[in-house]
Amino acid sequence: MSHETPLGSSAPHASCLDLWRERNDQLVRQAKVAQGLSLRRQQLAQDALEGLRELLHCLQVLETQEQLEPRLERGLSGLWDSVLHSSSLLPELLPALHHLAALQAALWLSTDHLGDLTLLLQTLNGSQSGTSEDLLLLLKTWNLPAEESDAPLTLQDARDLRDVLLTASAYRQGLQELITGRLSRALSSLQEAASGLCPQPVLVQVYTALGTCLRKMGSPQKALLYLVSALKGGSTWGPPLLEASRLYRQLGNTAAELESLELLVEALSIPHSSEAPQLLIEVELLLPPPDPALPFHSGTQSQAKYLLASRCLQTGRAEDAAEHYLDLLALLLDGSEPKFSPPPCPPGPCMPEMFLEAAAALIQAGRAQDALTVCEELLSRMSSLLPKMPQLWGDARKGTKESPHCPPWVSATYLLQGHAWVQLGAQKEAISEFSRCLELLFRATHKDKEQGPASNCDQGCTSDVALQQLRAAALISRGLGWVASGQDTKALQDFLLSVQMCPGNQDASFHLLQTLRRLDRRDEATALWWRLEAQTKLPQENATWSLPLYLETCLSWIRPHDHETLLEEFQTSLLEPRDL
Amino acid sequence: MVGLTPRVDYLAGFCCPLGGLAAGKPRMLCLGAEIFLSTGSELVYVYDRERGLLTAVYKFPGQVWHLELLALRRALYVLCARRGIYCLSLDQASRSVSQDDGDDKDDGDDGDSEDSQDGEPPSSVIPVDPDACVLPDATLCTFTVLDDVLITLAQGPTQWKMQLFKCPCPGEDPRPRGQIGEVELSTCIPPAGSPREPTAPHFLPVLCCVSPQGSRVLHSHLRGSGGFTLEETLFGLLFGADASLLESPVILCGLPDGHLCCVVLKTLVTSRLAPGDPKALVKILHHLEEPVVFIGALRTELLAEDVEESHSDCLVALGHHGRTLVMKASWDEAGNLVPVLREYCLPGPVLCAACGRGSCMYHSTPSDLCVVDLAWRGTPWDPTQPDGSPGGLPSLLCPTTLNVCSVVTLSVSPRAPEGGAELLALSAKGRLMTCRLDLNSETPCPTRVTAANTGQKIKEFLSGIFTVSERVSSLKKAVDQRNKALTCLNEAMNVSCALLSTEEGPRPISCTTTTSWSRLQLQDMLTATCLLENSSDFSLDQGWALCVQVLTSSRASELDLASSAVTYTIPVDRLGPGSRWEVTLPLGPGEDGVLDLPVTVSCTLFYSLREVVGGALIPSDSFNDPSLDEHSLDVLPEQEGICLPLSKHTVDMLQCLRFPSLATPHMQAPGPLSPASDPVDTFLGACLGPGSELAGPASLQAKYLPPSVAAIKMSVELLRATLGDSHSGVSLCCATLQWLLAENAAVDILRARALSSVQGVAPDGTDVHLIVREVVVTDLCLAGPIQAMEIQVESSSLANMCRAHHAVIGRMQAPPHTLRIREPAS
Asked: Could you tell me which SMART domains the record lists for this protein (chain A) (predicted)?
């Protein structure tokens, strides 16, 4: 902070003032010399600051001012108004007054009192600049009177402060406009911030914001240029890399997108270097607190890793996905003692779902055995929370129909285990896993919503739609298992149930159709065919509900490959007997 | 366990302030034979039990608020108020032993030894090097250590902030290697005033680290730092699947506002650029509605086999007033695993508490140290049991007294005797003692007296005497306070009976209200003076208050009378028999210059039970913590007390009229704009011009409209009867006017000048003219004309005319005797 003398002039004796000033100048010199990174120097600077603080307290006037502060908080703008409009303002006080105003402006900017700030600047600029409400314009046109040569030393002069204010408010304004979608204005504000005197970390943020802005405006090449300069500039690579991955995703360049994400993971694994405490008012101090909701908040390493893994799975790179998921689990679980690791960001899936996604990726990659291991690990880690089933369900004495509540992810684990067995060719084991899954799913009642304080995550993970799809998936999976082992009647039963469960799920209907045909139940097959035909002609209400990634993956395994051919084939076979 | 008698041994005495040690800040930790102790001052003592002496005393630059040990690293972490966290190496501590310290072994000293110790700490005080400060932060309120992570709780201006730091090792660069996580407990608002301010907070938050059973974190670390290992089931149920899967330790946090929340440690590692999202990271488990003073864990179920490591299966949180939350896993009727959270009530206020390895929790109040056993001796984990109470929790907690009082900090010693427990306790008088309990046997083993153990026996007796004497002095204080409260209550009952039993005639305690105009803060103000007169034989003491309710007429028309009135409560400060006491209150006009007449002033005597009985509810006043008093009083409802109505007085227009025209230099009646006003005020008044007091439509009306007039006629005969003899010697007109203005300060001038009409000024400055003349009413009665008195009220303001008219009517309707009573003595 900088220290002003005008208030000190109220000290009655000039000699006191001189003493005070001498000490002030000495401390300021000490602080300026001490700026640097070494610990010793920091200590020196800290001592200087402490000295300045004491000096401040010497001034009785300032002390009372400080006590009054809470009460004055509202009246401050009024005070400024009366001071600046006072007719008897001494010209020699002007530089100090402007300096003080710059400090006030910094305070108001950091506490979001933008209205007061605008008013203050308008008054300082005098009436000629008129009624401009533009903070940036006001800051730019702020004409600071020259400091007198014999003024006491200060740590940071008014001009320096004004430049800091200009950059900070340009960036704040740009962010605000970016969030509210006024892109062209955001662009100009951010460019203003970038052109100002800007410390490196802030410049990286500004360039990243520019990249986001340009991407949204549809200029990906320009955006890339900014992101590249951001990456060249600083040591915080997280935000620009994350933004680059979004940009490549928008451009459809999956390889580049995944590469950016990989780099992001690496960048985030580098620990933060602790920074020297700031002595002066810098742009960083005046920026709004970082907000995870902002588009270029890079998050933590495991969050990035998760993003990479799930994108790999979504884009069909199952092998990479499997590896990344395994890395992620290792990162989270085996985080050896001193190293704590975070799970992905809050809106992401909860831990059990991450295990399930890992298992799904492994199955997709053809590593069924590993998938089984992951599932078993999940179940064993959570075993203490699972109901002790045989012992409880065997208890007929109480005659309770209600079953223990079981989180949906437990059923999903059995479903994935079943599919792993399918891949391993063990139909019997697969069918038994699917049956366990179904048993749990159909016993789960919807009413146990009011759970203990812990289960909000478990509840939140799976919506009703997802639960319905999960049931259908389990039924179809078991049906396919029956088909594979040649038990068409049992398969028919499961497919029928799944159609009833999810009338909109066409996969279930196709499987049912095929089975009916195989069993030569022509009439039912025809009826179903007509219904399917009608359905396909209707505008597809697409599956817009977002399902958990592991369920999406699982559903893709049980999708019949040849919808069209099947329908056509059936049509011809259907029409033949009609012609007869 | 009824009648547990612990064996108490005194180890040492420590400096304590005159009023005794306050609870909340002292801390005590054990490591082997060493006891680390802070009494809430700036000293930290290291006491060696085996050698029976103080091995080191460290002096910190401020009050010590918290201690933690990291046994494996042999490091002691100390939170110094408004400074930050310091780290001391224990090896260094034992090296700087100074043996010639005479402060220990003062078992034989009598009670006044504390005073002698008061001024000067022991000689070998080692000032702590400022470089030992590993985390300078003035806002820290508490912390805990887990492995090499330092978890701190700081008080921000609006919220509590939890931060994680890499703990520095002793000998390393002392600065913490950096913050690795941060979250704000946004839902929990800290009490106003940050710890930067000189007054220390009454209650500090409590942190407790809980690890799941399978966690790879070494358990020895946890033990040392006051953490617990919890059974997987309860852990998963309370903290969620994520915490279980990550096998992450969880920080439980009990706040002074009663919130009990938890943070999964592994999720708290966030990038330094962004603090964590509190909604995702902080979960509120419960709200205890009183300051949380302790969090601990217990093993309540008996283990089936002899399992080596027993993990806690039950979490306990204790509130300051004794509200106790117990959390345990259980099966519900449908066979689902559910967490059971049950609240109990233990005697409070709780000064400190501790949990042992078993099922016992110890907690201390000013008057006693109690042990509560939460052991569940039913069949474990059997949902089929029809009568199994949920969670295997007892329906009631029965604390057993240990007959030790005023323990301000407790620690369960790791060196427990077989089948028992050993507690280390620090009493409010600064005495460090051990309490050995035999939890198994019902009767203490009789010991044969031999020459060898006679010395030991005598020592025990002496210890016993100290315990008893401390306890007696605390109980005596409580009894004295209760007696005092009873005496006060008796007095209050006497006063109430005296007041309520007199229905007719003068009451033993009366209150009369008079009004007058006076000049307060450059404004003319109508003030009411209530004179409380005690002519009874009893005195009004502490606890009595005079409540004066002022009800203005505009409010009187509204429905919610009680809430719109202004009530002044003035404590009566000892009003002995025969004494008087006067209270003067402003009635108006308010800032807007409006005085809504009539105003009703009701006086009531109120006796506050809270004030008198409340003191007796606190058993001891040795804990000079003002918050204790406030909180104990919550037992009594806010408005509890005795209410005795005394008088009701209506102030109307006739009482408030002023008569500047009558003012003579030597008369005291103040008029509006009396000459005593501020010259500047006078100047401004003059600048604004005449008539400026009236603004807006009122002034226009005054200028251009004829004044409103009302006349009331009253039969002369009736009037004579009403006035009685008092009018003798003056004309009936004058007497009538005097009668009307009897309660006005100007009545004496009226009487002296024998006026029958008068020009007055209403509170808002408009004129009010009263004219009394004799008239003959002819058209009213068939019997002939009636002699009547006409009272004419005239004012430029219709409202004031109405008010005056209303007041006149009120005089006529009042019962005759009240009129006479108010007749001034001439």
From this structure: TPR (SM00028)
